[in-house]
Each structure stands twice: as C-alpha cells, then as structure tokens.
C-alpha cells in the first residue's frame, strides 16, 4: 500500500506537470540522491521550478535528509519551491521539528500533511494548496490558470479582479484580507488606477470573466462606469458574483450622487463583516 501510494503520487504529479506545460520527471538524480518528482522550466534559464517529495510516514532522519539533499545542487539549479507531502497527519511535535529545520534552509519550502490514501483526491487538494501558496510569491499567468482549469475544473478557481491603489502597502492589506480556502484556488489580477479612459476601457473589457471585482479607493471618473454597471446587472444580480467598492464616506457619496450614471443602487455604509468564498 505504502509503495503503491508513493508511486501513484509520483506518476500523477508527472502527468499534471506535463499538462501544465512544465518539463516533468520522476526519480531525478542529483549529487546526494534522487528527487521524487520535479517540474522544470527551460526559459529563461534551465532550472527546477518545483521539487516534490512524497512521504508515507514520519521518519525524522529520512525526512530531513529529503529536505537538505536539495542543497547538493548548485544554487542556480535549486528549485524555487520544495513541497514535502505526507500521506498521514503529522504530530504537532514532528511538524514543529520539520518546520524548524525548513525555516533555516535557503529555499522556499511547503509542508503538506494528512493528504490521505485517495490519490485522485489528494492530488486535487495539493494542486489547490500548492498554487494558492505559490501565488504569494509569484504571479500566476493567465495561460497557467487556463491549464489549471483543465485539471481542477472552472468551478474550483475563483477569479478576482482588483482595480485601484497600486501601493505595496495597500496590496499587502488586500492580501491579508483574503482568506485562502482549502477547496478553491484564488487567482488575483491587480491593475493600478488608469487615468487614460481608453486604457480604462481595455482593462475593464473582460470583467464578466471574473467572479469578484474589487474597485479599491478609485473615484468614479477613473472607472468605466458603463462596463461596471453591466457587470453589476448581468453578473452580480443574475449570476451571484460580487462587486466590492472600497473607500471613505466622501468616495461613497461620489458614487451615490452619479444621477443617471448611477450603478443601479446605492453604496452601503461601512461594513466589518467577513466575506467567505
């Protein structure tokens, strides 16, 4: 059972890597052993993008060896991400020990435990967990998202369009406000405020493709109000999608005073409620 699970996970992740456009291999030889599975990219330089180690059980010596053997690769060949996956749940003491070692290594490491015996179910959970995590460090391209839809299905990917303040502090606040659910992959596209109306139209043209639209502290004159109104009427009211406007009282009043250009309702007052997906 243990060997079967390990081998099935290796092969499944090789297949997934290929579907996502990576060079995917199993049992990759390195100076200090083998890596269970790697997804690599060939451009702009050859590198291991993600390395996976699949663990049937907790053996501290073996698990730590699997973490540090990556360091036998030259720095330019080390994976940007290393994912260590456990079939069974880790005890708190084991997790603290392994994460303590991981935090001292010069590589970004993710520990995922308790994925279970069902390989298909475990793989879907891992893909969601993996790319929600990677999105904290790297931008996910639209092409990659489309390929992920082929694995997860469109209903497991929540697409969020954020338009507004480009400052890092503001984006960090937005990231902190998002709660990454275990059953859905979140894809956030953030676009700074555009003052040229032609550019505004281009950015808003595909709003209907998103599940959540966030207009973040942006005055009406910097928005394509007609497109925003269509999204509210056709996507929010008819399909249950979400439109979120953020800003102070003065900005709220600007939207509510639009007259004939009004979005079709009034912006409510301040809310501290948690929004769950």
From the structure above, extract its key features.
single chain; 277 residues; alpha/beta; five-stranded mixed beta sheet; four-stranded parallel beta sheet; 9 helices; elongated
Give the strand content: 15-25%
Strand element count: 9
* Global mean pLDDT: 83
Rg over alpha carbons: 22 Å
Describe the structure.
This protein has nine helices and nine strands. The protein starts with a helix and ends in a 21-residue tail after the last helix. Helix 2 (60-68) runs parallel beside helix 3 (92-102). 21% of the residues are buried. The strands form two sheets. The protein has a five-stranded mixed sheet with strand order 1-2-3-4-5, sandwiched between helices. By secondary structure, the protein is α/β, with parallel strands linked by helices.
Question: Secondary-structure map with pairings?
Answer:
Elements: H1 2-19, E1 23-30, E2 33-41, E3 47-55, H2 60-68, E4 81-86, H3 92-102, E5 108-112, H4 119-134, H5 142-152, E6 157-164, H6 168-177, E7 185-192, H7 197-204, E8 212-216, H8 225-239, E9 242-246, H9 249-256
Parallel strand pairs: 3-4, 4-5, 6-7, 6-8, 8-9
Antiparallel strand pairs: 1-2, 2-3
Helix pairs in contact: 2-3
